[in-house]
Amino acid sequence: MNYGSLFYTFLHLDIATETTREDYQGPIHSLALTMPSNKSVSDAPIFQFTNCRILKDHKLQKEDLWVREGKILNPEKLFFDEKGSADIQIDCQNSLIAPGFIDTQINGGFGVDFSMAKDDVSSGISLVAQKILSHGVTSFCPTLVTSPSSVYHQVLPQICVADGGPHGAGILGVHLEGPFISSEKRGAHLERFLCSYEMGGFQNLLETYGCLDKVSIVTLAPEIKRSSEVITELIKRRICVSLGHSVANLSQAEEAVKHGATYITHLFNAMLPFHHRDPGIVGLLTSDQIPKGQTVFYGMIADGIHTNPAALRLAHLAHPKGLVLVTDAITAMGLAPGKHSLGQQVIEIEGLNAYVAGTKILAGSIATMDMCVRYFLEATGCTVESALEAASLHPAQVLGIQHRKGTLNYGADADFVLLDDYLNVRATYIAGNRVWTKDFCTL
Q1: Which of the following is catalytic: 14, 87, 113, 328?
Q2: How confident is the model at residue 350 (pLDDT cuts 50, 70, 90)?
Q3: Which positions make up the binding site?
Q4: Could you read off the pLDDT of 25-37 as tens digits, one per residue?
């Protein structure tokens, strides 16, 4: 065994204890212990995260987390089948360990606008991917708002689905929010770029986007004629269909779900308000027309601005297993108030509000995912487990990747976040490697 390389690995992992290498003066073994092990299956080092509470089976449990080769390891198989043990023990000092957060709707941040046509789109995405690690996000879907067709043709080929790592959070595919949406409920989307597929059906959509290879989610308004055809074709390509920016009634929404739609884009925002005779898209949360075995998920922007706490509580109580926290963050996330962009529009930041310049039309948010988790917990009074799963397990289920993301089950990717009791991020890990940590001097 190369203990030199293990010591090098330790030097990059000791921050899990909240003590920097420079500040720490004690013996190494109090931070991470190098242990003997049997390498009968793999020569890769085995990490044991101790003194922690992990989110597993929908409960926070006092249990160690074992990692090898970027995957969550079953310790029973390690002990009894391999006769092995940990190479490195990491004291998490009673941190909560939850699956890494997944943001399925983020338009940009830190000065980067994903909907801006450039020749170096990848560099902007890389910057955001690196910055959001500090907020516990380990995977995300770069989101493009309604744009001219030329923008899709230029931007989409430059985005690559990729695993995360020290360079930044993983990219799970693009979320295309528009342009096949309602003019009446377009929100901050520019009307002149809205499109319809009434004439050519799915072919119209293909011509507009140019390529769907990098796409994981498409938001559309189901009341547009030929939507059933379009939804069916998108589902064939394993693309999640989300309903939003729409004036659809409940029957139209249910028809879309029967053809494969499984998601709702920022519930309550940019759709008909709930009405007792026809609740519209909101009614999907309690509809009895959802096909057996199918779950309708819905995104919510829990930033204290987009949705009243009472509405958050109402949605969560009605359908807790479908709630997905999203940031809907724009270019201004992480920046000072002022003027910024969202696609082809100028956005003004006033306090925590993002408006289309010169109006009071909300245009995304400047919230981070960890902020949304904390606000959602406080506003709804839900359990810590529910708040964490709304940012991890549920978005993974939306994308059909819950077997490897959004969970700490054995065999899943070792993407996780260490949190304190107030759900502040202490450290972020991807594939078992620490990719971000808070600069702690003392505990």
Answers
A1: 328
A2: confident
A3: 177, 188, 245, 266, 269-270, 277, 306, 362-364
A4: 333 233 455 454 4
pTM, to two decimals: 0.90
Q: Could you confirm whether 328 is annotated as catalytic?
A: yes
Q: Could you tell me which residues are beta bridge partners of residue 246?
A: 271
Report the residue count for the chain. 443
- Which comes out higher in pLDDT, residue 187 or 24? 187
Question: What is the b/e burial string over 264-299, where b = at least 16 CB atoms within 10 angstroms of the residue's CB?
Answer: bbbbbbbbbeeeeeebbbbbbbebeebeeeeebbbb
Tens of pLDDT, residues 153-176: 999 999 999 999 999 999 999 999
**Residue 433 identity:** N
Contact (Cβ atoms closer than 8 angstroms) between residue 100 and residue 389: no
**Checking DSSP bridges between strand 297-300 and strand 263-264, what pairing results, if any?**
parallel
What is the set of domains in the chain, with CATH numbers? 3-98+409-437 (2.30.40.10), 101-398 (3.20.20.140)
Q: What per-residue confidence (pLDDT) applies to 18?
A: 39
Beta bridge partners of residue 34, listed in sequence order: 88
